[in-house]
Amino acid sequence: MNMDDKDILVPVCANCGKEGDKNTCSKCNMVKYCNAVWKKVHKKKHKKECEEYVKLAAENHNEELRLAAEKHDIELFKETPSQYGDCPICFERLPILETGRYKTCCGKTICSGCVYAPVYDNQGNVVAEKTCAFCRTPTPTHEEMLEREKKRVELDDPIAKYNLGIDYRDGTCGYPKDYKKALELWHRAGELGYAKAYNNIGSAYDNGQGVERDKKNAVHYYELAAMGGDVSARYNLGFYEICASNKERALKHFMIATRGGDADSLNAVQKMYSKGYATKEDYTKALQAYQEYLGEIKSAQRDEAAAFSEKYRYY
User: Fold this and answer.
1) Nearest CA among 109, 159, 97, 156 for reference residue 134
2) Which fold has domain 142-229?
3) Smallest Cα–Cα separation from 228: which of 251, 265, 202?
4) CA–CA dist 273, 291 (Å, integer)
5) CB atoms inside a 10 Å sphere around CB 137
6) 3-state SS track over 251-271
7) Running DSSP on this structure, what letter comes out for residue 231?
């Protein structure tokens, strides 16, 4: 284009052909006029052209929405590795249930089997005083634990922020009940990569805890959590899809969550099969996937640890 060609660069009135664009067709936003009078005069002549412009714009908009929805679903139904990863000591997959122990001393999550297993020193002797199985730091008092948690929070440790959010939600460990503070901490934990925090935010919107009930926001945060590897959030999404009669989408969520070790999702697949919403092959695959998950998290040490009835969230 010749940048000196003013006839091309300067808008002209659709009615008189002179320069001017003070008025624009409010329906299509494509045709301009130099004044309101010419806009009114040209209205009848422009009607058919206007309708075509509006139709084309709608088609383009719908296509953009369709492509955006397809792209979103690709990300949503992509299988993401578990957010919990492997135990840093035995390297076995961490279960999704609360059997891992988050350590405020080193910021590691250690499986229950390694927590209860004997800790040895450099000479192979069992350490008499109970210490962290990863960093060998002695077990703290309750007060020391809270101080360590504060330091971990200051270091932007996502699990520490998530746990502190739980304390504010429940009013435990000396903290007042403050759902607003809890949500702030969970938002930050989610931003730092701890997907479970987003599931808690979704649940808050789902149940109106600390915020007004908002299904749209609930689904948004459940999706963020699911894409981050949280299977509980994916189960919640499957439940929403079932309620909306989107059985195919619901089954996709439940199958992914089952492969991630979610027993509730396995039960959901079984119910869908009994009602004819899923095939026998679907249910068989779900059972096999869940059995594979159980095999991946099983260890003799963890079985021994399961015998202990006393439970701790962290030391």
Assistant:
1) 109
2) 1.25.40
3) 202
4) 18
5) 15
6) HHHHHHHHHCCCHHHHHHHHH
7) H
Which sequence spans correspond to the domains of the chain? 8-40, 86-139, 142-229, 243-297
Phi, psi angle pair for 254, to nearest 5°: -65, -40
Structure tokens at 110: 């250690």
What sections of 84-230 are H helices per DSSP?
112-116, 142-154, 158-170, 179-191, 195-207, 215-227
* Better-scored residue on pLDDT, 309 or 66: 66
- Looking only at the bridges linking them, the beta strands covering 32-33 and 23-24 are antiparallel
Q: Round to the nearest angstrom and report the end-to-end CA distance of the chain.
A: 71
Strands 100-102 and 109-111: antiparallel
Taking the alpha carbons of 196, 201, 206, 208 in that order, is the dihedral positive or negative? positive
In one-letter notation, the amino acid at residue 194 is: Y
Instruction: Tell me the C-alpha distance between 169 and 200, whole Å.
Output: 10
Residue 98 binned pLDDT confidence (cut-offs 50, 70, 90): low
Q: Which amino acid is at 44?
A: K
User: How confident is the model over 54-73, as pLDDT tens digits?
Assistant: 777 666 766 776 777 788 88
Separation CA 251–CA 235 (nearest Å): 10
Q: Give every CB contact of residue 199 below 8 A, 6+ residues apart in sequence.
A: 221, 222, 225, 230, 232, 233, 236
Q: Which of 134, 173, 133 is nearest to 153 (CA)?
A: 173
Residue type (1 letter), 232: S
